[in-house]
Write a structure and sequence with these properties.
single chain, 976 residues, alpha/beta, Arc Repressor Mutant, subunit A, Rossmann fold, 5-stranded antiparallel beta sheet, 5-stranded parallel beta sheet, 44 helices, 8% strand, elongated
Length: 976
């Protein structure tokens, strides 16, 4: 079996034609580029370009030939070729002034200049995917010029200061420096680096949502800042808050709390102004050094100045420019006039294809008016940058200028198809857009990066703000925000359909990357100038993303707003049912089960019935039943689940039928109807397996494999199969671990693994599982599991002899009751009563078991009645009431036999037999306990069976006794 697994992991090897250059291997048939054996992210166009250049290595390949290879049958501006060549060079690391792999031949084309070896070699089929880095990681660097000393200094500052802010005007390079510092500092960060791009949000109230999303914290985080601080406290991370200036109050509040907390983590912020915390260490980034005017410099002397080096490098990337001595004075003048601002220099360098350096100097003097006095209170560098962006904008064609303004509607990276959709309403054709995108990238007004097989575009924060002003001033762009919202709607409606077939990890990466634009579109749609009906449709379409990624707090707020809107505007009942159902689930994971949750579910059921939709009617009934089980209303849950399962007779293809069957079986178990519960759970457990694939169908199979093992261990343990129950629970926990189902793992831990470990006395497992649940709560904050984890941790300490743990057990139970998480609360209180008894605190034990019995009766949880009666008898016995205690034990045993709970029957009969033994009724005790003990086929190392075995050994007849005793002698042999 293991050998087969290893074979699958290695994958099948195939003979492939391969081109090798440097550390790279190019496999044309597989459309694959490997760097030291690992796949490289490469856009589809870039791959076609590389393949043609490598195949014709050493030859000039014209622009026309390259365009025909990458865009067959399509006429496009050669700026698109430049963008894709730039992307290709970045992927190869070929960003130096002197190229290593691809050389530009002025005005003609490109040539692959590195040595290439051709071979036929073996390539594995199952190579790791070259997917993009997680969203929380820093963006890739374009190439840093002139900041090396500052980067080292700032990295050293972070070693001694928990909060460093890089302050400076827009365009100074704060983000670039921050990312470079993160790379330098990363080896000191045991738990990695998290990058939070605050430029993607416009509403300061979304600061917490952006923070927890970037950190990868999921679940119902009632307070995003507090949860983020809890997450960072034990970790050694570098957290980068980029572009804080427009959400400065929120960033300052977080930074203040971060610094007052104890954590080895570090905070690096970028902002146009400091955050203002008491211990903030501010580093003000200055301009890149540039030559003073009038110096006679050679090329070698000039490129020693970082500003000149940046200008020359960017000009070389986008045009056929070669830096010569005659241009030194003009280039130096340009860099000086632009104040050494990196973004301004890049914008000027992008014009080299149209103007030579001397012409640019004249234009800067004439157009920008740098020699005029600056406006009062306006920072000169900010004025320089805005003037340079404005100058670059005025050099655009009318179509390019309009497209530039339209692109400001995107909050994050976007694809060409997105821009085409938005621009259509402003009269721009797809050719206008694709050509314009390439031109704007070449002019440094837009950035581009390969993601998977496609290029993604993005405006920098400074240029986006300027572009938004231009959009607002252009009447032709009046529908841009609506078109943007419609595009986001189309994408997320598409995501709902793709969820059924796309690989889960690929689906999540694809659509979580759109969350910034989803937020922006929703904010517009529900605003004064928006479209509430469109907002409702957007919210419905986003439900799958919020559910899949478990971003529940944000979902809850959006769903509440949309549902309130849906009740005031024309909206179909099915959409209302979807909103109410999603709201019910988001509230289901809140810290406290409120009446708001019940209202949401009842609304959802009503809407689904009015819509005549059987699918959603079943879903809402099941969801409501799960809620009822959580708050301890078992009979009501059964009523709704019976209705849900009956719907399957009308439509056998309903997707929630298996969940309805599982929930009903679980509810029957709680009601003490084990004979109804076990066959259904066994059938479901046999139905679902651990599928090895990565499709949605396989993921759903794994999910159902895990979820049925939330419930079956609980029943199997009661029916006398403790080893089987423990194995089932561990299987669920491990399967969830392998598949990354952290919510399911928390459920498996809280509902199965921890209770079974506690009741079977496996303290090592109890310790392991509490630690795993604690780790889960850090990455997926499901508030209701917090007191559950505290309860089991306290139980572990109690069993290991900590006398103070009992107070923590009680506090955790009180919190569960306060949160209305009442499922199994009777059994929790019974454990508390047992702990009190061990300490001789009889009155408190009596009070705890009385509360337990009260909850059990009111909630209809008959399953635990025998155990509660047993504990009540123990309290009576300790209180000196043996007759009442004996009667109570007999009642408990009858109840355990009635519901078929062998484990409880064994516990009760052990206690009763011990009492009879102590009161000289040994034969009766043997007749009671031995047959029950003999029914067990496993679990002989558990405390329950060990206690029974020891008692039976004590009851063994003395030598010569004419009686016989079959069960006691081979006890330990059975355990073996």
């Amino acid at each position: 079996m293991q050998a087969g697994t290893e074979t699958r992991q290695r994958g099948t090897r195939r003979q492939e034609l391969t081109y090798c250059f440097g550390p790279f291997r190019l496999v044309p048939r597989r459309q694959l580029l490997l760097f030291d054996g690992r796949p490289v992210k490469l856009g589809g166009r870039a791959f076609e370009l590389l393949q043609l250049l490598v195949q014709r290595r050493g030859e000039l390949v014209s622009k026309t030939e390259l365009m025909a290879a990458a865009w067959p049958g399509t006429f496009l501006h050669d700026s698109n070729l430049k963008v894709n060549m730039w992307s290709l060079r970045r992927s190869l690391g070929d960003t130096q002034i002197e190229p290593v792999y691809i050389a530009t031949v002025a005005r003609r084309g490109y040539k692959f200049i590195a040595e290439v070896q051709t071979s036929i070699g073996e390539i594995e089929d199952d190579l790791p995917h070259a997917g993009p880095a997680p969203l929380s990681r820093p963006p890739s660097l374009r190439g840093i010029v002139g900041r090396q000393a500052e980067i080292v200094e700032i990295a050293d500052l972070l070693a001694d200061n928990r909060h460093v802010t890089l302050a400076g005007t827009g365009g100074i390079g704060k983000t670039t420096v921050a990312v470079a510092v993160a790379r330098a500092f990363a080896p000191r960060c045991r738990d990695g680096v998290c990058f939070v791009d605050l430029a993607t949000i416009s509403d300061p109230t979304l600061f917490g949502a952006a923070l927890v999303t970037a950190l990868g914290i999921r679940g119902n985080t009632d307070n995003g800042l507090a949860v983020a601080l809890d997450y960072l406290r034990p970790r050694q991370m570098l957290l980068i808050l980029d572009n804080c200036e427009h959400v400065l109050p929120a960033a300052t509040i977080f930074a203040g709390r971060f610094l007052s907390d104890t954590s080895p983590s570090r905070l690096l912020a970028t902002s146009r102004e400091p955050l203002g915390t008491a211990t903030e260490h501010v580093v003000r980034l200055g301009s890149l050094p540039s030559p003073k005017p009038g110096l006679a410099l050679t090329v070698d002397q000039a490129v020693r100045f970082p500003a000149v080096q940046l200008f020359v490098r960017r000009a070389a990337e986008w045009s056929d420019y070669r830096f010569v001595d005659d241009d030194c004075e003009a280039v130096a003048a340009i860099c000086h006039a632009l104040g050494g601002l990196p973004l301004a220099i890049e914008l000027a360098a992008a014009q080299i294809g149209r103007f030579n350096p001397r012409e640019l100097v004249a234009m800067l003097d004439q157009e920008l008016g740098f020699r005029a006095p600056s406006a009062e209170g306006t920072p000169p560098r900010h004025e320089t940058l805005m003037a340079t962006i404005d100058w670059s904008f005025r050099l655009l064609s009318q179509k390019e200028a309009r497209l530039f303004g339209l692109l400001s509607v995107f909050s994050d990276a976007f694809a060409a198809e997105d821009a085409v959709f938005v621009a259509e309403a402003a009269g721009l054709t797809p050719i206008d857009v694709v050509t314009g995108l390439g031109s704007l990238v070449a002019k440094s007004l837009l950035s581009a990066q390969a993601r998977g097989a496609h290029l993604r575009y993005r405006l920098l924060d400074s240029t986006r703000r300027y572009a938004a002003e231009r959009r607002q001033a252009d009447p032709a762009c009046s529908q841009a925000l609506r078109r943007h919202a419609e595009r986001v709607l189309a994408l997320f409606e598409q995501s709902e359909e793709e969820w059924n077939w796309r690989e889960p990890a690929d689906w999540t990466q694809r659509y979580l990357g759109r969350i910034a634009d989803l937020r922006a579109a929703l904010s517009w749609a529900v605003g004064e100038a928006g479209d509430p009906v469109l907002g409702i449709r957007l919210t419905v379409a986003a439900i799958t993303l919020w559910s899949e990624t478990f971003i529940l707090s944000e979902a809850q707020a959006r769903l509440e707003d949309a549902l309130a809107l849906a009740k005031t505007v024309a909206c179909d009942d099915l959409s209302k049912a979807k909103l109410a159902c999603a709201l019910g689930w988001s509230l289901f994971y809140a810290r406290k089960m409120s009446n708001e949750n019940e209202i949401a579910w009842l609304d959802a059921i009503g809407f689904a019935r009015r819509a005549g939709n059987v699918e959603y009617r079943q879903r809402t009934l099941v969801g409501f039943a799960f809620y009822l089980l959580q708050i301890g209303q078992v009979p009501r849950a059964i009523t709704h689940l019976e209705e849900a399962t009956a719907l399957a007779d009308r439509d056998p293809d309903l997707t929630a039928t298996s969940e309805a069957d599982r929930a009903l079986a679980w509810a029957h178990a709680f009601a003490g109807e084990l004979s109804k519960s076990r066959p259904v759970l066994d059938r479901l457990a046999a139905t679902y397996s651990l599928a090895a694939g990565r499709s949605r169908k396989d993921a759903n199979e794994v999910y159902r494999f895990i979820t049925v093992r939330f419930n079956l261990p609980f029943v199997a343990w009661m029916q006398g199969q403790p080893d089987y129950a423990a194995r089932l629970a561990r299987d669920a926990v491990d399967a969830a671990d392998r598949s990354g189902h952290w919510v399911s793992q928390s459920n498996a831990l809280g509902l199965a693994a921890l209770p079974v470990a506690l009741e079977t006395g496996n303290l090592d497992a109890l310790e392991n599982f509490t630690e795993r649940l604690r780790r889960n709560l850090e990455r997926e904050r499901i508030s209701r599991w917090v007191p559950v984890e505290r309860y089991f941790s306290a139980c572990l300490r109690d069993l290991r002899g900590d006398p103070r743990a009992v107070e923590d057990i009680r506090a955790a139970i009180d919190e569960l009751i306060e949160c209305r998480f009442l499922m199994r609360i009777g059994s929790y209180l019974a454990v508390l009563a047992r702990a009190y008894l061990r300490q001789g605190r009889i009155a408190e034990a009596r009070e705890a078991i009385a509360r337990a019995i009260d909850h059990q009766e009111r909630q209809g949880e008959r399953w635990c009645r025998p155990e509660l009666q047993r504990i009540d008898a123990a309290v009576l016995l300790h209180a000196g009431e043996p007759l009442r205690a004996e009667k109570r034990l007999q009642q408990a045993l009858a109840e355990a036999r009635t519901i078929g709970a062998m484990t409880f029957a064994l516990r009760i009969s052990t206690d009763l037999a011990a009492h009879w033994m102590a009161t000289d009724r040994r034969p009766r005790a043997v007749r009671l306990l031995a047959p029950i003990y003999d029914e067990f086929a496993e679990g002989f190392e558990t405390p329950d069976l060990v206690a029974a075995s020891r008692l039976l050994q004590r009851m063994r007849p003395a030598q010569g006794d004419c009686g016989h005793f079959r069960s006691a002698a081979p006890v330990h042999a059975r355990g073996a």
